[in-house]
Amino acid sequence: MKVKAEFLKVLQKVDLKRPLMIPPAFLKHLEEESSEVVILEGPSGGLWNIKLNRIYDGMYLEHGWETFLTDHSLSAGDLLVFSYKGHLHFTVTIFDRRACWREDSFTVKPSQESSNTHEVKRRGRPPETLERAKHGENRKALIDINPPSQPSETHQTRGLPKQKQPDQLPSSKGKRVRVSKPIEVNQIARRPAKEAVAEFTSRLPFFVIELQTHNVNRPFYVNVPSWFSRSYLPKKETKIVLQDAKENSWIVNHRKFTSRDTLYGGWAKFCQENNLKKGDYCVFELVGELQLRVYIFPVH
Q1: DSSP strand pairing (238-243 vs 291-297)
Q2: How far is residue 58 from each of residues 12, 21, 220, measured CA to CA in Å?
Q3: 252-290, pLDDT tens digit by residue?
Q4: What is the mean pLDDT of residues 9-30?
Q5: What's residue 1's pLDDT?
Q6: Quick check: 207 and 225 in contact, CB under 8 A?
Q7: What pLDDT score was predicted for residue 227?
Q8: Whole-model pTM?
Q9: Residue 124 in contact with residue 88, Cβ under 8 Å?
């Protein structure tokens, strides 16, 4: 969904104890909405249902707002950016008093109280949302591996081929190499992850990350190589689907900065459900628009 409008709020002490008033000048964007529920989407991608109270002097976020504050450990001085997507659906970006991202907000989950409160039927077309695929058990992926005598360098593929050719495929350096049939990752599990990932090749663009502490612990994020993001990712904030070989899917947030692109939000859940650890290698392969298949090479 495109952002239709935004407003900012620097929290004061009184805001932590009372309903939040939506700026009067912003109400023109909400005139056609009749629902009594506002959806706030936090930096983690979690959703909070908030009771909207309409009175003579404006609109207020009431029941559920205090839960949003508590879940995100918000305090006076924090800056919130409310980006309106339509149909009373806002995404909220949180900055601290230094005007820096509150990185701990990327992993916050709605409390049970917030998830179950004020579920009022909404009139009209509901906000567009991405539906998560069911998460299956953690399984090893299938990967294409070159024979050991034909190693190829990683993360250099630049374009999507117009035609798939099963035997001869362009390598990451533009040379043509023969790709063997997919084999189970556990067949190469006895080899070091660095050695195994070096043999990965694909007809599709991909990049490789050796996981560091910040990737698998708070604040849980991954920086995408600039060459990959310039070529294949949108120049705006969006959602991206991570998928394993069994087509289990996770939704993550993608944000673009001047010097880098970052995956966060649902990345924490992906890490936890796949038991990722520092030193593991992940191959991110572009298999569709805003869709990355992830192959995991665990460290031994």
Answers
A1: parallel
A2: 19, 7, 38
A3: 999 887 667 899 989 999 999 999 999 999 999 999 889
A4: 90
A5: 54
A6: yes
A7: 87
A8: 0.41
A9: no
**DSSP assignment of 193-261, as one string?**
HHHHHTTB--SS-EEEEE--HHHHSTT--EEEPHHHHHHHS-SS-EEEEEE-TT--EEEEEEEE-SS-E
Nearest to 93 by CA among 213, 264, 225, 296: 264
**How far, in Å, CA of 152 to CA of 78, rounded?**
48
Cα–Cα distance measured from residue 200 to residue 245, given in angstroms and rounded to the nearest whole number: 15
How many whole angstroms separate alpha carbon 50 and alpha carbon 169? 52
Name the one residue in this structure whose structure tokens are 């009175």: 55
Rounded to an integer, what distance in angstroms lies between the CA atom of residue 156 and that of residue 226?
Answer: 12
**Span 106-118, average pLDDT:** 67
Q: Which domains does the chain have, with CATH numbers?
A: 5-116 (2.40.330.10), 142-297 (2.40.330.10)
- Positive/negative CA dihedral, 215, 226, 106, 77: positive
